[in-house]
Amino acid sequence: MVDLSGVEFWYWWVFALFLLAVEVFAPGAIALWMGISAGIVGGLLYIFPDLLWEKQIIIFAVLSVVSVAVWRIYARKNPPASDNPNLNKRGSDLIGYSFTLTADLKNGMGRETVNGVLWKIKGRDLPEGTKVSITSVEGTALIVEPEEA
User: Fold this and answer.
1) Cα-based angle 57, 18, 59 (whole degrees, multiple of 5)
2) Residue 59 burial by CB count (10 A; 0-12/13-18/19+): exposed, middle or buried?
3) CA 143-147-149 angle, 5° bins
4) What does the pLDDT look like over 27-57, one tens digit per residue?
5) Could you give the C-alpha distances from 45 to 5, 8, 55, 110, in angstroms and in order?
6) Pairwise CA distance, residues 41 & 52, whole Å
7) Which of 31, 50, 98, 117 suits 68 as a labelling partner, its CA being 20 to 30 A distant?
8) Whole-prediction pTM value?
């Protein structure tokens, strides 16, 4: 059995640095909070050098679980702001765009080149030459409705 009674404060700080390095190479904010928890335990051991190793482990475990849980709740309620929120939502910037059909829309499906890109088009059956506008995007298809005359 390993004797952990000789654990010193700087062991925890080295462990904290290791966890922070893991976070740099595998970001996800889990190792970050565990590293901070290890640093806090090291600080507590520095202040209270007689702190039993069992209590150190318990403090580390509790701090890690609580800090990760609090971070996840906070991150879910406060998503990061983006300067380009439609980055991975291809076609969403086309909503509201109007164009004229160059082919019939049959059985609710068709293909159309919009802004130089060939798209699947969905909507009710419409003849060629109908002016339509894009109302939404469904997967890789643009949903269109005829414009009112």
Assistant:
1) 15
2) middle
3) 165
4) 787 899 999 999 999 999 999 999 999 999 9
5) 12, 7, 10, 69
6) 11
7) 50
8) 0.56
